[in-house]
Hints:
By secondary structure, the chain is mainly alpha-helical. It has one domain (2-206): Triger factor/SurA peptide-binding fold. The protein has helices spanning 2-12, 43-58, 63-69, 73-93, 100-114, 117-128, 135-151, 159-176, 200-206, and strands at residues 32-36, 39-42, 179-180, 187-188, 193-194. It has a three-stranded antiparallel sheet with strand order 2-1-3. A two-stranded antiparallel ribbon has the order 4-5. The longest helix is centred in the middle third of the chain and has 21 residues, at 73-93. The protein starts with a helix and ends in an 11-residue tail after the last helix.
Amino acid sequence: MHRRRTALSVSAALLVAAPLLSACGSQAHPGAAAVVGGGRIEVSTVQAQAADVRSAQRSSPQAAQLVNRSGQLGRAKLHSLIFGQILDRAAKDAGVSVSRKEIQEARLASAAQSGGEEQLKAMMLQQRWVAPDQIDGDMRRDVQLPKLAEALGADLGSPAGQQVVGEALTKASEALDIDVNPRFGAWDDQKLQLGDYKASWITQVTKAEAPEPQAGA
Length: 217
């Protein structure tokens, strides 16, 4: 239970706000928001994820509040996509894999904690800016991160353990040679952040000192 809650708090931080993406790609990679490990993250992919969230938000009784609090949704989604690939690489390097069964078990446990599947969907939308059809991807990270820490012999609840995991993520980030469209900033391998964009999981895992920005800033 402790590991699941730790993973939830880390993943939730991927939802911190940052500026909306535009449809233009960089000159080097037209149409790409970023290139990670030689693979493209298309601007259209980021926009589609953001659109799914917006659609779900507008169907919520708290529509106005949810939309207002997630004004920088597009860049948060780009950061999430980049970080997901970094975590995949770090997990692969550590010999960690995640099964479909583990993802479903994590989702069932989270739903039970939230009071049911519908409550889980509402919580994910409000706290993480995750649309219903994106939940399994988020749950995968919830499973993956503590398994990575375990494989590294690290305790995510301790500063020393957080440093170990942070170093593994930085190593994976460097190996992926991340190239972000300059319109959205540059990726920092050491801080694991996009330009001036900081997420609270950075504080938890790598003990970054700078404060995170407020949503809509």
